[in-house]
Every structure is written in C-alpha cells, then in structure tokens.
Amino acid sequence: MTLVGVHGNASGPLSSDDLAVLTTSRAEAVKLLSTGRASDVAAVRSINPNMLVVVRLHMAWGQSGSPRIISPQQYADWSAPDIRKFYDVGVSYFEFPNEPNLYLEGYGANWTGNTFAAWWITVRDRLAPLFPHALWGYAGLSPGPILPGMRGESERDFITAISAAVDRADWLGVHCYWVNRQEMLHPSHGNGWTWHALRFPNKPLYITEFSNPSPAVAADEKGHQYVDWLGQLTSPVAAFAFISSGEGWSYEAWAGTNIPAIVGAWQEPPPEPEEP
Hints:
Elements: E1 3-7, H1 16-24, E2 29-33, H2 39-47, E3 52-56, E4 62-63, E5 66-67, H3 72-87, E6 93-96, H4 116-127, E7 135-138, H5 155-161, H6 163-168, E8 171-177, H7 181-184, H8 193-199, E9 205-211, H9 219-231, E10 238-241, H10 259-267
C-alpha cells in the first residue's frame, strides 16, 4: 500500500505546527527541503521511527526575466553541503530539481526538454561518488499543457524528451493536482501518475506533491478527497501532500485545518477484537 506522506514547511525548517500535522495525520513519510535542518530528521522519526524521509534540493533560479544561469557542476557543488547534512543523519532519498518545465525553475535559460537530460545526468554523476548510498530521484514536473510565460513544455512532452535522465534515476517523482472530484481520478489530473507508471514500468514511482489547491473547496472536503484518492492508489511507493504549512499556500496548508485529523482517522488501524 502507498505510504501516506506530507511535504513539510515551504520555508525549510519544520515548526511545531508541522510536527503536529505529521503526528495527527499518522504520516508515514515526509518530504523536506534541503534548506531545512538535519535535526528535523530526528524530530520526525520520534513521531514515527519508520518515517520515510525524502529531501528535495532547493535552488533559487532568480526572477522571471532575469533568470540565473547555473551549470550542472555549480548546482552539484552548491548542493553538496546541504546533501551532506541530511546524508550524515541517515537520509538516502534526494529529489532534484523542482518542476524543471517551469520558467521560474530554470527552464529556457538553463535547459529545454531537449537538453535537460544531459544537465540532470551531469549533476547526478558529480554527486553520486560523494554520496554512494544516496538514491537520486528525477524531479516532479509541473503537470499540464504549455502555458506561455509559465510552463515551457507540457509535462508529458518534457519527460518523453528526457527519458534518458529517468533511466539513470533511482526513482521517479511525479506531481498530481486537481480542483474537484471529477478531476481527482482523471488520468490527466489527480491520477496523472498512471501515465508515468505505464511509461516507466520498471521505475519506482513517488508522488512527491499532490493537492487540491482550489480556494472554492472547503478544507474538510479536501481532507475527505485526500482519503478517497489515497485509498485508490496502487503502484506509487509514497504520496506526499502539498503542504503542511508555508507562507502563500493558505488554500493547501494542512496546519490549522481538520485535514490531518481526517487523514489520521482513516490511517488509524481497526481496534483489536476483544477476547471471548
């Protein structure tokens, strides 16, 4: 069964509210940012000793119109200290970068679908000898068609063009979003992961972001949608809800809502039968 996970604080370090979300939801996995604290690993494993921890490498790519050019060698060298602090406390799962088909995440200035595979493989090959037990995840993409000025290539066109990078990855990250129950199970929205599972059948699949971001849907209804959606997953190893907390994510944050309790009640095992 797919592990139930939550993406931690969007700012990096976990707060007491983030830890409460993980506790109440009975989370089995957590996604942290490389800008966070290594001590957060011990904190989440005090909640669940078997907690799967995935760290997504964070890099600021600059503002739209003035993007930074970051070579794969620079990306690897600048990321290595953050990887080290988590690797040394037992984390082995690392995902990079983030939604590379978005202009705000490096698309256009640094790569397109035709050149990203070489960029990704160069980063991986520079980091792998430094962290021999690490498992490198190919980045989750922004799902959907081309959006001028925002999404440079559709998710499926981009990943088809860079399949060589997926082949070199230890696992595949996927992002799934929807805004209503009709989209929740649609193969181009909430169940977009099914296309990836068919396209890369031998690659372990992790849904590293999922959410209903609509401001028109109440938090309690989102919680029930998440329970129904999680219950029908099959092949993904883990699915990470976006997001426990973070400035600017008020319609997706779990902290301060009933969502953790709704998911936690579903996660709670049935009571042991009474002795006759």
